[in-house]
Amino acid sequence: MSEQIRIKITPNGEIHAKTIGMDDESCLDLVPILEDLLDAETVSSEFTEEFLRAQIHGKTEVQAEVQRKKQQITDERNS
Length: 79
Known about the structure:
Structural class: alpha+beta
Shape: rod-shaped
Number of domains: 1
Oligomer: single chain
Mean pLDDT: 83
Distance between the termini: 48 Å
Number of helices: 2
Order of helices and strands: EEHH
Largest sheet: 2 strands, antiparallel
C-alpha cells in the first residue's frame, strides 16, 4: 500500500489527519507541514495501530536475535 494522509474537517472546524502505509516515525515529519498547510495547531496526536504493530514486531525480532546469540555463546562455551 502506498503512503497516504487522510484529512477530515468536521463541521465545527476540527481537523483530523491519519497516516496510512507509514509504519515508522517519518510521519512525525509531516506534522509541521500539515500545520502550515492547514493553518492549524496540533492539539493531540497518537501513533496508529500500524506503527505500533511494526514496533512490536521489530522488538520481537530483536529479542529473538538476542536469544539466538546467547544460545550460540552458551553452546560454544559448552563445546
